[in-house]
């Protein structure tokens, strides 16, 4: 059965972050200990002191902490400032948080953070992630 959850945007150091949501929807299905989680966020972040990596909180269940258990997914974004040269996006889960990670050919991945957003400008993140519990 499809079950709802509420995804929430924040940063590692939220500071004075305020988030106005136009859309804030999440849902998931389970198959044994496998969770398939989807989310649709259209939001406008306003901040001056927020910093650190972007996180989406509120996952329904904490992911399995076993070595090598890495969750992955895909998503669509708009309204974000991408690092120069980065062309694709992956999602990695840890504990009960989702972090967005940009990748580049022949380079290191980078976490999306507060500096990838413009205060007062609407952004969209729509995605799906699969992880084990």
Descriptive report:
This protein is mostly beta strands. The protein is 0% helix and 57% strand. It has no helices and 10 strands. It has a 5-stranded antiparallel beta sheet with strand order 1-3-4-10-6, with no helix packed on it. Strands 2, 5, 7, 8 and 9 form a 5-stranded antiparallel beta sheet that branches. The chain is globular and about 40 Å long. The model has no long low-confidence stretch (mean pLDDT 88).
List the main descriptive attributes of the protein structure presented here.
five-stranded antiparallel sheet, 133 residues, 10 strands, single chain, globular, mainly beta
Give the ordered list of helices and strands.
EEEEEEEEEE
Number of helices: 0
Which structural class do you get from the secondary structure elements? mainly beta
Helical content, roughly? Answer: under 10%
Strand arrangement within the widest β-sheet reads 1-3-4-10-6
- Average pLDDT number: 88
Could you say which overall geometry the principal axes of the C-alpha atoms support? globular
What is the terminal separation in angstroms? 17 Å
How many E strands?
Answer: 10
User: How much β-strand is present in the residues?
Assistant: over 45%
Poorly predicted ranges (pLDDT <50, ≥5 residues)? none
What's the main sheet like?
5 strands, antiparallel
What Rg do the Cα atoms give? 14 Å
């Amino acid at each position: 059965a499809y079950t709802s959850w509420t995804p929430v945007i924040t940063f590692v150091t939220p500071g004075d972050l305020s988030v106005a949501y136009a859309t804030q929807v999440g849902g998931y299905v389970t198959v044994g200990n496998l969770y398939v989680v989807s989310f649709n966020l259209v939001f406008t972040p306003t901040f001056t002191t927020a910093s650190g990596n972007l996180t989406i909180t509120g996952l329904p269940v904490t992911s399995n902490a076993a070595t090598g258990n890495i969750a992955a997914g895909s998503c669509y974004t708009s309204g974000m400032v991408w690092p120069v040269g980065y062309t694709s996006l992956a999602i990695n889960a840890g504990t009960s948080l989702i972090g967005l990670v940009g990748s580049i050919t022949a380079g290191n991945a980078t976490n999306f953070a507060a500096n990838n957003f413009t205060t007062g400008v609407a952004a969209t993140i729509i995605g799906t992630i699969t992880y084990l519990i």
